[in-house]
Amino acid sequence: MRIIIAREGFKVFFFMKRETIRAIKDLAYYSSIGLSVALSIFIGLALGVFLDRKVFNTTPWFTLICLGLGIAAGFRNIGIAIKKSRKL
Question: For residues 21 and 86, what is the distance between their CA atoms, to the nearest angstrom?
Fold first, then answer.
């Protein structure tokens, strides 16, 4: 079966089955979850360090609080992905 995907004026011809294309899309989605979790933890840590060093001068507290919030946000992203996969 021939599938044509057109994006921004370019046509790309794939000679793959629909199941293969679906599997590749799912793989791309689930691999982005790891990046999402890592970024949420890093952003929480960076925000906590910034608040501790530059704003309030309370060395470990805001770092630990924001790191915990970043970890919670990462687990929330995993939960959303699980919900989405169950609906499919």
Answer: 19
Query: Distance (Å, rounded) from C-alpha 86 to C-alpha 88?
Result: 5
CB 40 within 8 A of CB 77: yes
3-state helix, strand, coil in the chain (%, to 5): 75, 10, 15
- The pLDDT confidence band at residue 24, using thresholds 50, 70 and 90, is confident
State the pTM of this model: 0.68
Among the listed residues 72, 50, 48, 75, the one whose alpha carbon sits nearest the alpha carbon of residue 62: 48
Predicted local confidence at residue 38, as pLDDT: 93
| 1, 47, 56 from 44: Cα distances, Å | 47, 5, 16
Range of the domain at 25: 3-87
Cα–Cα separations (whole angstroms), residue 25 to 20, 29, 35, 80: 9, 6, 16, 17
- Number of separate domains in the chain: 1
